[in-house]
Amino acid sequence: MLRNPLASPDIIGVTSGSSVAAVFCILVLHMSGPSVSIVAVISGLVISVLIYLLSNGSSFSGSRLILIGIGIQAMLNAVTSFLLLKANQYDVAGALRWLSGSLNGMTMKNAPSLFIVVAVFGTIILFLTKYLQVLELGDEFATTLGIKMNLVRIILILSSVFLIAFATSTTGPIAFVAFLAGPIGSKLVGKGAPNAISSALVGALLVLGSDMIGQFVFSTRFPVGVITGILGAPYMLFLLICINRRGES
């Protein structure tokens, strides 16, 4: 949709918006449980809307959105670091566990709310997937076909952000899942084919596989976010090198 492989919620500030709110609730307001999740979801949505509004200007630009998102992410990460430095050690331990991204503590009690959110917003995304291929060709081409680009883009972004914010509020930020799942899912179905379902399945398998590695492969148990971060960081460097080479050629 943004025509840029770097357009991942890990990179453009969406997960950071949820994270800073959750850390503030844990460290400053001493909140826990569902209340932290609710605030994290709201914060993720607010930050996403802010990024979109700042990037819109006279016309929408995916590159501008990514750059603004990276800037806001850096600012939010700085706020998170400040909160962690000022808090007492006991509270910091709880916040760091949340920030590492983990499936520990997840029970069937979390299933109904997750199912409802995925069913509603996942259905919206699947319904609008047919427009994604057109949007990838550019705004001018989409306009000639009579597609209301801004409306479709806003609905897709808000639906995606709500799913991301809700997932982040439940497990904490699990790094690079969306960043890895999208390209892999696209490769599996082939270029030009809708890849929403394949990307979702790859993301789910990636999280489950990483969790199993973190729990059973090493003598020390690692949160799933640590494993996905180890997998995702080299891919990000590889992608940046490829983009740089394309720019030089």
Automatic annotation (TrEMBL):
Cellular localisation: Cell membrane
Record keywords: Cell membrane, Membrane, Transmembrane, Transmembrane helix, Transport
Membrane topology field: Multi-pass membrane protein
Keyword Ion transport: no
GO cellular component: plasma membrane
Transmembrane regions: 12-29, 36-54, 66-85, 114-134, 154-184, 196-218, 224-243
Main location group: membrane
Keyword Transmembrane helix: yes
GO MF entries: transmembrane transporter activity
Gene Ontology annotations of biological process type: siderophore-iron import into cell
Classification via Pfam families: FecCD (PF01032)
Family: Belongs to the binding-protein-dependent transport system permease family. FecCD subfamily.
Name this polypeptide is given: Putative siderophore transport system permease protein YfhA
Lineage of the organism: unclassified sequences, metagenomes, ecological metagenomes
